């Protein structure tokens, strides 16, 4: 099993993905307060009181080789604007999921998500030699489902009654994936989308 590289930074023109740490907690609280993201019932963004625990759990998953967690920093302002994660990393089968992604409301629908996903997907398919990368989201999170589709991922199916949420409701999870043979076309598409952002 590969060891987690805690020094890994993935850098683009708009964002820097840097190793998540407890030092990021105050900045992540500020980011989540931009839009009160925890109030969206179909997402799992932590509130002020649970942010530290959220980061600790991410670091625990890293410690057993199942995850790589990142804080997302805006290159222009230098502010931490959210986080994202490689998770459910099945190293033996060269599969992983990109998830636990959220951004401050003022940075949603910008180049941030496109570039973050481009950086993570490139790392997964190139450095980690993955054969498939998954994305999962709540059935009712239509914004997330549309965003995943725009990345070029294909819907694999729906896991019904997949999770019991903190409030006791049942979540149906929609599963998407990109496989390695699709990556060159997806990469070209994401780069084109970023170029369009740059020209807008």
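Q: What amino acid sequence fits the structure above?
A:
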């Amino acid at each position: 099993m590969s060891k987690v590289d805690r020094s890994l930074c993935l850098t683009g023109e708009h964002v820097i993905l840097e190793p998540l740490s407890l030092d990021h907690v105050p900045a992540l609280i500020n980011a989540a307060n931009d839009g009160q993201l925890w109030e969206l019932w179909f997402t799992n963004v932590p509130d002020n009181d649970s942010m530290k625990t959220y980061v600790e759990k991410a670091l625990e998953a890293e410690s057993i080789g199942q995850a790589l967690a990142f804080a997302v920093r805006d290159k222009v302002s230098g502010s931490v604007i959210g986080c994202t994660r490689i998770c459910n990393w099945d190293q033996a089968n060269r599969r992983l999921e990109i998830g636990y992604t959220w951004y401050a409301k003022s940075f949603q629908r910008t180049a941030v998500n496109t570039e973050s996903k481009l950086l993570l997907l490139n790392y997964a398919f190139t450095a980690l030699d993955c054969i498939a990368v998954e994305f999962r989201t709540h059935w009712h999170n239509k914004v997330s489902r549309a965003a995943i589709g725009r990345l070029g991922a294909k819907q694999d199916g729906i896991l019904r009654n997949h999770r019991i949420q903190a409030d006791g409701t049942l979540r149906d999870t929609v599963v998407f994936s990109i496989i390695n043979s699709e990556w060159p076309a997806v990469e070209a598409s994401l780069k084109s989308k970023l170029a369009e952002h740059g020209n807008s």
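Q: And what stands out in the fold?
A: The helical segments are 25-33, 51-63, 111-127, 142-151, 183-199.
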